[in-house]
Design brief:
Elements lengths: L6 E4 L6 H10 L4 E6 L6 H12 L3 E5 L4 H8 L4 E4 L3 E2 L3 E2 L4 H11 L4 E3 L18 H16 L5 E4 L2 E2 H4 L15 E5 L5 E5 L1 H11 L8 E4 L6 E3 H12 L4 E5 L1 H9 L3 H15 L12 E3 H4 L8 H5 L4
Parallel strand pairs: 1-2, 1-4, 2-3, 4-7, 8-12, 9-11, 10-14, 12-15
Antiparallel strand pairs: 5-6, 11-13
Helix pairs in contact: 1-7, 3-4, 9-10
Bound molecules: NADPH dihydro-nicotinamide-adenine-dinucleotide phosphate (NDP).
């Protein structure tokens, strides 16, 4: 049997990153996690890193401000996965990855790089709205650097993180579902795709030693989780045994409210606009040069929307 690749996770203490560390360990990969010197006395992060070590990961020290330190850690592994921040209301550091790309290029040993993507496919968002298009534009800058450097890659298009979208019944600004009311975005009929963050990590790790995903985009589209906002609301109503009071926000109203928000909020709202009013995640067929994760890995028992939502009861 082929040896499992050694994996380095960058951004391992993050919302998605910590799940990637766990999935990598569970799937039997020798797992290295970057301990950035800059985190200093952030006790939560340090304790999390130590817990990774207790679970069998290796902690390796490095800094985005020290090229050679990155080259050194990259040389230890076969695969690099980056889950650096990319949500403006939290932190957005996507372009910092260019330094990681330089290190991977110099190290020369990496068989696969998964950059911090894990959302809407940026290659499909060339007509995205300002200011949210910055997320897609920056991710495309990183893609170009990877491809120009000839680094083997897999891009993971994970669609909607369930915690944000299901938690808030697809309403921006909410991450816990109301038992009283919901505001539908438009008619609430555009389909989107919701994925449990742990499943995103599981599928992502599955791709790294798979020749079928080399230099490809992998979309995560669990078939039962392709649902409209209205359908998500119905599932929640069934779980709580009660109908919610419904109102609706038109496209024009949504855009007008968006313009009054600060920059970081506007970025997030732009993303909700493309997903919920335009249906940008589910309105296309997966074509050449791409794969779909639940088809590639039918053995993964993914979490359905209903299963995910039981946590809010
Ligand atoms: P987080 O905000 O949780 O941050 C992840 C990690 O980034 C941090 O833990 C830290 O890692 C690292 N980081 C943050 N700031 C810096 C810095 N200045 N220098 C170096 N490293 C830094 O990220 P998320 O998990 O929310 O996002 C990961 C990816 O997922 C992004 O690409 C994002 O766009 C995408 N995403 C997609 C969503 C969707 O619905 N599809 C929703 C949310 C995110 P450490 O300290 O360990 O080095």
């Amino acid at each position: 049997m082929a040896m499992k690749s050694k994996v380095l996770i960058v951004g391992g203490t993050g919302y998605l990153g910590k799940r990637l560390v766990k999935a990598s360990l569970v799937q039997g990969h020798e797992t290295y996690v970057l301990h950035r010197e800059e985190i200093g006395v952030d006790i939560e992060k340090v304790q999390m890193l130590l817990s990774f070590k207790q679970q069998g990961a290796h902690l390796v020290t490095g800094s985005f401000n020290d090229h050679q330190s990155l080259v050194k850690v990259v040389k230890l592994v076969d695969v690099v996965i980056c889950a650096i921040s990319g949500v403006h209301i939290r932190s957005h550091q996507i372009l910092l990855q260019l330094r990681l790309v330089d290190a991977i290029k110099e190290a020369g040993n990496v068989k696969r790089f998964l950059p911090s993507e894990f959302g809407t496919d940026p290659a499909r968002m060339e007509n995205a709205m300002e200011p949210g298009r910055v997320t897609f534009d920056d991710k495309m800058v990183v893609r170009r650097a990877i491809e120009e450097a000839g680094i083997p890659f897999t891009y993971i298009s994970a669609n909607c993180f369930a915690g944000y979208f299901l938690g808030g019944l697809c309403q921006p600004g909410f991450i816990l579902p109301s038992r009283e009311q919901v505001r539908l975005l438009g008619d609430g009929n555009q389909k989107a795709i919701y994925v449990d963050e742990d499943d995103i990590a599981t599928y992502s790790i599955k791709t790294i030693d798979d020749p079928r995903t080399l230099n490809k985009t992998v979309y995560i589209r669990p078939p039962q989780n392709i649902l409209s906002q209205g359908e998500v609301v119905q599932i929640w109503e069934k779980l709580i045994g009660k109908e919610l009071l419904k109102s609706s926000i038109s496209e024009q109203e949504f855009l007008a409210i968006m313009k009054e928000q600060d920059y970081a909020e506007q970025v997030g709202l732009t993303h909700y606009y493309h997903v919920c009013y335009e249906g940008c995640l589910a309105n296309f067929e997966i074509g050449d040069g791409a794969e779909e994760a639940s088809k590639l890995y039918p053995e993964v028992k993914y979490t359905t929307v209903e299963e995910y939502m039981t946590r809010y009861l």
